[in-house]
Amino acid sequence: MKILSGEYAGSTLYYTTSLQPQALFNLKKVLLALGMSVPNSKMTLDLKAVVGKVAGVTVAHEMYDGKNKARIVDWYPAQDVEDEDVETVDEEEVDLEDDDEDDDL
C-alpha cells in the first residue's frame, strides 16, 4: 500500500492476508475498505482490480529486530479518511508483473 498524504506520503506499507478459510474475514475487511463487492460465497479475486483503489488504514508502530516498524492494524473506507486531499494512484505507477506473492494486498 502506498501512503498518499500526510507526513509519510510516498512511503510503502506492506500487508499480508491469509487465504486460509478461518482467516478470510480479514481479507474481506480489506476488500470492503477498498470499495470492492465481496459475496458471502467463493469468489475469484483479480489482484489487478485492486490497483488504484484507496482505503484508510490505522498504523501502529512496534519494535522488530531492534527497529521501529509500521504495521497496519485496521482498514476503513476512503470516504471515512479525515485527512486533507486524498489522491488516487495512477495504475501505470504499479508493476504487478514483479510481484510473486498473489495474496499480498
Descriptive overview:
The protein is mainly β. The chain contains 1 helix and 2 strands; from the N terminus they run αββ. The chain has one helix at 24-33, and strands at 55-64, 67-77. Strands 1-2 form a two-stranded antiparallel sheet.
Q: Key terms for this structure?
A:
mainly beta; two-stranded antiparallel sheet; 10% helix; globular; disordered C terminus
In short:
With 105 residues, the protein is mainly beta. It contains one helix and two strands, in the order αββ.
Please report the total strand number as a whole number.
2
Q: Estimate the strand proportion.
A: 15-25%
Structural class: mainly beta
Largest beta-sheet details: 2 strands, antiparallel
N to C succession of SSEs: HEE
- Beginning-to-end CA distance, first to last residue: 7 Å
Q: Topology of this structure?
A:
Layout: H1 24-33, E1 55-64, E2 67-77
Antiparallel strand pairs: 1-2
